[in-house]
Specification:
The chain has nine helices and no strands. It is globular. The chain is 72% helix and 0% strand. By secondary structure, the protein is mostly helical. It has one domain. The longest helix has 37 residues. Helix 2 packs across helix 6, helix 3 runs antiparallel to helix 6 and helix 4 runs antiparallel to helix 5.
């Protein structure tokens, strides 16, 4: 693992896809542990499920912030009232138990999201590799690119104010560099082509995301104006 993180070629060829899968899952659990503790404290202090505790926090934030310029079509007071109403809904289980299970579920989602991202993004990169002339099988590719999850451990420090954000940014950039190096090693593509194969899916995802956001905002605007 250390060889791969240090971008040494030998580090990307000494593991299997199954080992990389387990590594991604374990690293996702480790990265999510500190956020789990923070989420547990937030939910337990509110005595409710984590999503409801977050809604309550958002309601308090909206009350303290003038957002008339952000919500020209909606009343911030109504949004705050709705958030508080949802956050105060009765629940059949004790608050501490609901808080624990909701925070635990969020923690388990960390490795599941990492695995989904690893597989889906890897599939997109493989398509780009094929278009750019690479000849590589899926198993060696995923075995090598799994090491890119190691620097993402720094993302788990995100709850720490300021320092956590910086660490998260460093971790993402470092992971991207490791991914590019791993892709270059297993596909034997020139460095620029390997870079393009890794970045093109990011561009595609960005375009799709921005298009979806624009479509949602347009739909909300048309609905609010009664078009």
């Amino acid at each position: 693992m250390s060889d791969a993180v240090q971008l040494r070629a030998s580090g990307f060829t000494e593991t299997t896809m199954r080992q990389s899968l387990g590594m991604v899952f374990l690293l996702g659990l480790l990265a999510g542990f500190l956020p789990f503790l923070v989420n547990l404290q937030q939910a337990a202090s509110a005595g409710t499920a984590l999503p409801l505790a977050r809604l309550g926090a958002q309601a308090s934030l909206l009350q303290q912030t003038p957002l008339d310029y952000v919500f020209p079509l909606f009343s911030p007071a109504q949004i705050v009232e709705l958030f508080q109403l949802i956050a105060g809904l009765p629940q059949p289980l004790p608050g501490w138990l609901v808080a624990f299970f909701s925070a635990l579920g969020e923690w388990i989602n960390w490795p599941l999201r990492w695995l989904a991202l690893w597989i889906v993004y890897g599939a997109l990169v493989m398509v780009c590799n094929s278009v750019l002339g690479a000849n590589c099988r899926l198993q060696p590719f995923f075995a090598a690119t799994g090491f890119a999850s190691t620097p993402l451990l720094l993302v788990g420090l995100s709850p720490i104010p300021c320092f956590g954000r910086v660490c998260g940014l460093v971790g993402v950039i470092w992971a991207l560099v490791v991914y590019i190096r791993a892709n270059e090693e297993v596909t034997n593509l020139p460095r620029l082509r390997s870079l393009a194969a890794v970045l093109l899916p990011l561009l595609f995802i960005l375009i799709v995301t921005l298009s979806a956001i624009a479509l949602v905002l347009l739909s909300v605007y048309l609905f609010a104006t009664g078009f």
